[in-house]
Amino acid sequence: MKKLHEISIGFFGTANFSLCFLRDLFEHGVKIQFVVSQPPKHSGRGKKLKPSAVHEWAEQKNLKVFTPNEASDKIFMEKISKNKIDLNIIVSYGKILNEKLLTLPNFFSINVHASLLPRWRGAAPIHRAILSNDKKTGVCIMKVNEKLDAGPIISEQEIGIDESDNFKSIYDQIIHKGKILLKEAIVKIVNDDIKLKYQDEKYVSYASKIDKSELKIQWNNDANDINAKIRAFSPKPGAWTKFKNSESRIKILEARVIKDLDIENKKLNIGQITKDFRVRCAKDFLEVKILQKEGKKPIPAKDFLNGNKIQDFSFS
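The structure assignment produced for this chain is given below.
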């Protein structure tokens, strides 16, 4: 029976999410023959080229790194084809791989995906699950084909979404459970100990990339839906709003829904704020717990109230 340190892989990844899995495999002795990441991008005020988190870390560990503009690039394909590997591991790489790359390994290519497929294929599965008030999500290891997130499932782990969960808490759970799941899957694959579960296309939903316009809070929505938005974007990039007659954004990072029945003064206009920082929504109220002014650190709402009189204020 082959063990982790006897298995050789190619790794495709770009984001910090990817790096968590690459680092874990490296620390457990998996033979990483090469790493593929997206090319450096212009970043910061000076617009200097900045390598991805995966690229930067891999170079520090003296791993062979490729950063092709396109995964089908002829020179890249020639170089990578010289490597003998058991598996390709693909985690948030950002591009769909062609058949030649997918079939390069002795076995096949696998992907770590942050949902319970076929629910939430695509770029932003954690955000979409919380925004949709899903009661559960999860992480799965799937065999990759040329269609986006459509391959058969090798293994999966369910994660419940509680009313107190936000993006970070679910993200952290997915990484923790996903790392265990990935290592187990790698060993099972090379030892021919898997049973594939094919996705039912009837239940497919797509997690489109988050648009900046989605971050603005619309107070004429139900408090429950607004709270889902706050949780989905907390702590970063943060759902935001503005006081009326102000251009400064305020991010709301934590809140809770208060039913109309529990509010004494129900005659407020939508967006209007009570003295204890409860905001009128189309249905119910939202009590702000943690917020962040532009250029400042997050603070509890009670601390904000100590330095700011907001009675008769409202959000636009």
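Interim note for the steering committee: The CA atoms of residues 120 and 205 lie 5 Å apart. The mean pLDDT is 94.
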